[in-house]
């Protein structure tokens, strides 16, 4: 309930969770494993501007499915030494295979850039790394999520291997109002003057920015010993 998204995107996330929960029945009890040798996992791309809930959605899915979530820091995986990046990627998936977890590749633009024309050795190895990652995702029987700000960085060969592509848009005024109304924990004293509709219409903020503004406003109010009011939230936004 804390995940505020358009209904279509929320339905896609629920469908993906349902697919994971039915995995054992379909592949093992209904014997689809005899027909499908690989590509049994659920792979997803979450794309959209920063602060729109991509990482939070991965956390919510992990909670819904009761699975551990492992965030992969791609900047730490990429090596300047030829072949090392593939070894690092291989180790990630070998560990993931042991623990039935969700793999979240955050800031995926770092490695999943559009495969370039091979103009030098560096390009050739970079393309090989992307191809190897695609192969490992396809072989992985668990859940893999790639979070990126730029969808156009993914080429067609990559997209064909993805089960769900979920767009995380900047929230419109209606969603921003919902975010402002749901952002405060029930134990937080909020003044009656706080106008979620006005805040939503006046400030085009992402979900993460609304959360940060609300937290900053709460800290200002607490330091004054008063409930959270409009002046605190406007200070947080500023």
What is the arithmetic mean of pLDDT?
A: 86
Low-confidence stretches: 114-118
Which strand-content bin applies to the residues?
5-15%
- Side by side, the strands of the main sheet go 2-3-4-1-5
Helix content: 40-55%
Nearest-angstrom radius of gyration? 21 Å
Q: Enumerate how many helices there are, as a single number.
A: 11
**Order of secondary-structure elements:** HHEHEHHEHEHEHHHH
User: How many runs of DSSP E, i.e. beta strands?
Assistant: 5
CA distance, first residue to last residue: 28 Å
- What's the story with the biggest beta sheet? 5 strands, parallel
Secondary-structure content class: alpha/beta
Shape: elongated
Overview of the molecule:
The protein has helices spanning 7-21, 23-29, 54-65, 74-77, 84-99, 121-139, 156-159, 173-182, 196-202, 207-224, 230-237; strands spanning 42-47, 69-73, 102-106, 143-148, 164-167. It is of the alpha/beta class. It starts with 6 loop residues before the first helix and ends with a helix.
């Amino acid at each position: 309930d804390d995940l505020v998204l358009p209904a279509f995107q929320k339905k896609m996330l629920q469908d993906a969770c349902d697919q994971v929960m039915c995995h054992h029945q379909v592949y093992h009890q209904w014997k689809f494993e005899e027909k499908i040798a690989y590509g049994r996992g659920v792979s997803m791309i979450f794309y959209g501007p920063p602060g729109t809930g991509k990482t939070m959605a991965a956390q919510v899915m992990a909670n819904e499915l009761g699975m551990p979530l492992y965030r992969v820091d791609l900047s730490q995986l990429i090596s300047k030494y030829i072949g090392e990046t593939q070894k690092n990627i291989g180790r990630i998936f070998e560990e993931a295979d042991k623990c039935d977890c969700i793999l979240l590749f955050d800031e995926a633009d770092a490695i999943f850039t559009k495969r370039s024309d091979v103009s030098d050795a560096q390009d050739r190895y970079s393309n090989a790394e992307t191809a190897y990652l695609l192969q490992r995702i396809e072989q992985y029987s668990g859940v893999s999520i790639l979070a990126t700000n730029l969808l156009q960085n993914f080429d067609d060969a990559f997209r064909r291997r993805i089960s769900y592509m979920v767009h995380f848009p900047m929230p419109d005024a209606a969603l921003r109002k919902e975010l402002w109304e749901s952002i405060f924990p029930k134990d937080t004293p909020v003044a009656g003057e706080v106008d979620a509709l006005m805040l939503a219409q006046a400030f085009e903020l992402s979900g993460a920015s609304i959360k940060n503004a609300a937290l900053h406003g709460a800290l200002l109010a607490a330091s004054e010993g008063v409930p959270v009011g409009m002046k605190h939230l406007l200070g947080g936004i500023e």
